[in-house]
Design a protein that fits this description.
4 helices; Pep_chain_release_fac_I; peptidyl-tRNA hydrolase activity; hydrolase; Aminoacyl-tRNA hydrolase; 14% strand; alpha+beta; Double Stranded RNA Binding Domain; ribosome binding
Length: 134
């Protein structure tokens, strides 16, 4: 099970910068864009098995040295953007650690097969009755 997002805070580095896009003077003055940097391989919170699973699932999103970068510039507030990027981080880890239930192959029941074949027979008879007689 994944620990809460607060457990990762000592390992996360936040960096702020000026956000792009609309916002008037606020965009030019305030550093509201938040970038989250987290080094997967140096994490003390996760087990080696969890790290390996995350590495497999998030491989393309990580840098060459195992650094995960996430940004948020959705809101005009730096604090709100920090909350947004933390929520995205936690959701991404939860999604990457989720193991889908293995699929068990099943067969259709005898009744279902019989019902399907009866339906096909009825349709076949309908079409056969539409043909011209010689």
């Amino acid at each position: 099970m994944l620990p809460p997002a607060a457990a990762f805070l000592p390992e996360i580095i936040f960096q702020t910068s000026r956000a792009s896009g609309p916002g008037g003077q606020n965009v030019n003055k305030v550093e509201s864009r938040v970038e989250l940097r987290w080094h997967l391989l140096d994490s003390q919170v996760l087990t080696d098995e969890q790290k390996q699973l995350i590495l497999e699932k998030l491989g393309p999103q990580l840098t060459a040295d195992g650094l995960l970068l996430l940004t948020a510039q959705d809101d005009r507030s730096q604090l709100r953007n920090k909350e947004i990027v933390l929520a995205r981080f936690h959701a991404l880890l939860l999604k990457s650690l989720h193991r889908p239930k293995p699929r068990r192959a099943t067969k259709p029941s005898r009744g279902a097969v019989r019902k399907r074949l009866e339906g096909k027979k009825i349709q076949s008879d309908k079409k056969a009755n539409r043909r011209k007689l010689d």
